[in-house]
Amino acid sequence: MRLHFSIAFAAVGGALLAQLPFDLDAGFRTDIDRVYVSSVLPLTNGQLLVSGQMRFPDESGYEGLARLNTDGSRDTSFPVNQFGGGRLTSWNGKIYVSGGQVVERLLLNGMSDPSWTHMNTFPLFTSGQGGDYHVFPDGRLLFTGSHGVQDPVHGFNGQYSLVWFSNTGWLDTTRIHRQTNGAIYRIAQLNNGQFYCGGAFTEYEGNPAVGLVRIQPDGSYDPSFQTSITWGDPVVIKPLADGRLMAAGLMKFQGSSDTLRLVRFMPDGSLDPTFNNHLDPERDYTNNPTYLIASILEMDPDRFIITGGFNLIDGDPHGHIAMIDSTGHLVDVAFQGTGAGTFLYQNYNQTSISGIMPTNDGTDDYWIWGSYHGYDDGTTDDTLQRMVSRLHGLSVGVEEPKLSADGSLRFLPNPSTGQFTLHNPRLAKNITVYTSTGQQVWQGTGNTIDLTEQPPGVYTAVVATEHGRQAVRLVVVR
Tens digit of pLDDT for each residue in 212-232? Predict the structure, then answer.
């Protein structure tokens, strides 16, 4: 059953049309009773793999991995699988899944891949504190956390936060394993092959790096990325196509006593002055989690969806899912309902949405998952939703006339020696340009930017449109 609801509203300078994202597919329901789903993986036949700590009806124990039918019911032909609980990744018709301290590779039928060797079988590696992982196109694995490597022949003996494995599960003795003075809990690759790593550490291979570091493809330290974080742990790291980085968690910065939960970094590691780095997600009931934002999904350069354990943002109700624009401010027309519902687990109210992703089945639908009972989209309050839900209508939302013929706001040429032209300038009201440290260096109402007197580097151009909105783009002076 699909339920749709649309609204229209007026904005400064013209009318904008919006449809209420996102309506719930009440025809999809799981019978997972508790405790959580941490990752989902859509299959080509429309079924869904789910990983977490899951209890199904008539079971006293918990499963780490299961397969759901297209209506959300459990596929009982899939084997009962205790292993799992962490992130799922598809590779070459097989599945990588993390479970506690190691990563395994499974066949699509849920059985172990016989060509993959359990990590702890290799005598040179001892799993310790598990973290995140990255799968390369050839099946090799980069595993984070804090693990023991005893390979004195190749110069490794101690605890390592980045450990390389071959595509058969053996320790890769041809690579340089990397150390921090703590643990790396998450990793994300950039388009150029570099990685961002986040976790509980203050040094990376002896170099200063509090909680966040950028490394080269081989794992070596990149000194050109330096943040002013003095304390904290970014639990979500989201590289953006323009070179900036969004991060969520708990972070304090030099010169400020505020604890920030969602920020955007410039390519050099400084805080982006054009972003609302003080968005305030909260949870006003018991069992207040430390980390309130669990995922960031980029819809397009101007819209992002955040999910997590919050039920308030800046004091307004937002049930564990919300949309923000490119400046870090709420898009209030999105997610009008109360969102995910609570349930009691071990004497605590449990609720969170851990993530959101496309269904990848040719529709504009998306999966959400986490730890909740019931979901209210603003039109339908389905109290029977459990841990995984399907939403319609995510391709629509607030839209204003396009800023150029091909649907993108562009400065050309970019890079340049300092002269940039905005295409198409008909909606521009004014343009302000900042350095990476937030210093304003240019402002004007025309369609050109003149930075010829500025030193080479990356600059942020903020374009205010006649509709009262802002768009942000990077320009590079050579």
Answer: 999 999 999 999 999 999 998
